[in-house]
Amino acid sequence: MKNIVQKVSIPFCGVMLGTAALGNLLQSYSEGVRYVCGLFSAFLLVLVLLKLVLFPEKVKEDMSNPILASVAGTFPMALMILSTYVKPFIGRAAFYIWMLAIILHVILIIYFTVKFIVKLQMPKVFASYYIVYVGIVTASVTAPAYEKTGIGSAIFWFGFVSLLILFILVTYRYLKFKEIPEPARALVCIYAAPTSLCIAGYVQSVAWKSKAFLLGMLAAATILYIFALVKAISFLKFPFYPSMAAFTFPFVISAIATKQTMACFANMGSPVPALKTAVLVETGIAVALVAYTYVRFMMALFGGKK
Fold first, then answer.
1. What is the pLDDT of residues 269-279, one digit of tens each?
2. Nearest CA to 99 among 132, 122, 127, 76?
3. Separation of alpha carbons 200 and 219, rounded Å
4. Can you give the pTM of this predicted structure?
């Protein structure tokens, strides 16, 4: 067992996040399927916690790597979502888990800023940086479960401003320094996540909504989604790399964003029927990519290779 836990890496948190989010995406189809996704995500949570307990020095070492440190943001993000799964069973305790996750994410933002942003090295900037600063908008998505939309709204605006700044920074890095090691190339798929996450956070926590603003975000998210999907398909031929965790949450949250935008427009009295087809297509893609990635990670974990 210890040998298996030793092989667990920080990117497992990304798959944990994507699987938990997939359950929420599929909830309208089946509550049972949602809890199945929750169980698969919880299994990864147990593995990650065992890694923290049994190999803390290794985790500490990984946090000195800007890619792994940024991907670590998927842990509190997943914790926020999983807290909503257990809320019906543990009541108020779920709220404390949610708050703990937000605090952990804030600590990560501070650590990452001091460690990697103050003395910024452009060649070491990757799309995973979005996770640190925009990922906390997961709190905005889950805030209604705890009737804390005020907190959710404030966090949304922080994440949205961070998105604008990081889009310029990260895109400049990819255009200026085009040489990217093969193991890190799949990270570019994360481009699909931040705008879509902001859409979901906006719909869930911001009281006053602008159709034009929401439509603008959806247009940008759609362009980035198509870009990331084309890249993901091209990366499927690569051997397994932990960075393939980027095939999960970005595509799930994109489907969630489209689905929530469709519902929001309908509530505003301006339904967009075409979005229904887009939701079905994006949901199918999300399911396929999460299933594919989860299996690849399990093969890497239990396949006998380090």
1. 999 999 999 99
2. 76
3. 14
4. 0.97
Q: Which residue has the tokens 């996040």?
A: 17
Report CA-CA distances (Å) from 52 to 62, 64, 119, 184.
Answer: 11, 15, 28, 23
Nearest Cα residue to 7 out of 66, 71, 63, 50: 50
What is the dihedral angle through the alpha carbons of 272, 283, 74, 89, rounded to the nearest 10 degrees?
A: 100
For 206-239, the pLDDT digits (tens) are: 999 999 999 999 999 999 999 999 999 999 999 9
DSSP 245: G
Q: Rounded CA gap, 17 and 64, in Å?
A: 22
- Between CA 282 and CA 259 the distance in angstroms is 9
Q: How far are the Cα atoms of 14, 120, 122, 168, 221 from residue 172, in angstroms, in the given order?
A: 25, 13, 9, 6, 19
Long-range contacts formed by 228-236: CB under 8 A, 24+ apart: 228/188, 228/189, 228/190, 228/191, 228/192, 229/192, 229/285, 231/185, 231/186, 231/188, 231/189, 232/186, 232/189, 232/289, 235/185, 235/186, 235/189, 236/292
